[in-house]
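User: Could you check the structure of this?
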Amino acid sequence: MKIEWKKTDKQIYLPGSNPTTVTIPKMKYFCISGIGNPNHEAFAEKIQVLYGLAYAVRMMPKSGVTPDGYQEYTVYPLEGIWDLTEAGRLSDTLDKDELVYKIMIRQPDFVTPAIFAMALDKVRKKAPTPLLEQVAFEEMEDGLCVQMMHTGTFDSEPMSFARMDAYLNAEGLTRKSKIHKEIYISDFRKTKPEMRKTVLRYFVKQG
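Assistant: Sure, the predicted structure tokens are below.
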């Protein structure tokens, strides 16, 4: 049976358009970090590297390697954790050149450091790039979160963040930090900006 995240993990990836509270368990990711404007080519190149590795794992059985516990699955969506540099925090307006990010793609439970190393080797041979040396294999647990689905451009996200802030106040919750996560349900390279669907997620605590 094929694992399809849109069916098996709706609570994680397909929230409604109103803020809700959810607890996200520990999961495995291929990650790469950076600083700067996500509209620049460097950001797109990092996305390409992550997808290359994700599909290298996904297609391993077709190249003669079937990892223990492998089950056919749909590659998970791109995610990003976003922050600002110190200079960016002091600015009255958002300067995208001062954005700090970690972008990632979730991996199935069967993926191990050895599988990650095999994927790196496969991509190095097919599409070598120095960016491969910046990719990390990590486990992360988002824990208690508030999230909602935002439909529209990235620049219109503050309207959804305002609704999330109001929800926090009503529910007696506070953010653990100023960083937030985004999950790109739509392929923003192919979807009209006004139609993009993006999960917005705060990391929160009680009180």
